[in-house]
Amino acid sequence: MKIGTLKEVDIRDLWKHGQYDFSNWLAEPENIEYLNDILGLTLVDVNQEVYVGSYRCDIVAKDETSETKVIIENQLEQSNHDHLGKIITYASGEV
Question: What does residue 48 show for φ and ψ, rounded to 5 degrees?
Fold first, then answer.
């Protein structure tokens, strides 16, 4: 077992742009599996930039166990009303 050290970094040094860099990273199979392990989900059918009306949801997947659709709206900064509104729109729309 290898033990590492934690180091604080600027999140923008890792992902310059949420929609492109972070979404692409998160949607990679090994990262979805890690998310599944942490959240106790079984996300499958992962799609990026799914249109809901005139907006695009960052990631849409299905929890294989419950057959529930899961939406992920990325945000690398402090939460705000714009992203909350998008999540409500996505959840109430046809995804």
Answer: -110, 150
Contact at 8 Å (CB) between 83 and 91? Answer: no
> Tell me: the pLDDT tens digits for 31-77?
999 999 999 999 999 999 999 888 889 999 999 999 999 999 888 88
pTM: 0.81
Give me 91's structure tokens: 């959840």
Determine if residue 53 is left, alpha or beta; phi over 0 gives left, psi from -120 to 50 gives alpha, anything else beta: left
The answer to whether 59 and 27 have CB atoms below 8 angstroms apart is yes
Specify the DSSP element, H or E, that contains 12: helix 11-14
User: Furthest-apart CA pair in the chain: how many Å?
Assistant: 48
Coil vs helix vs strand at 23: helix
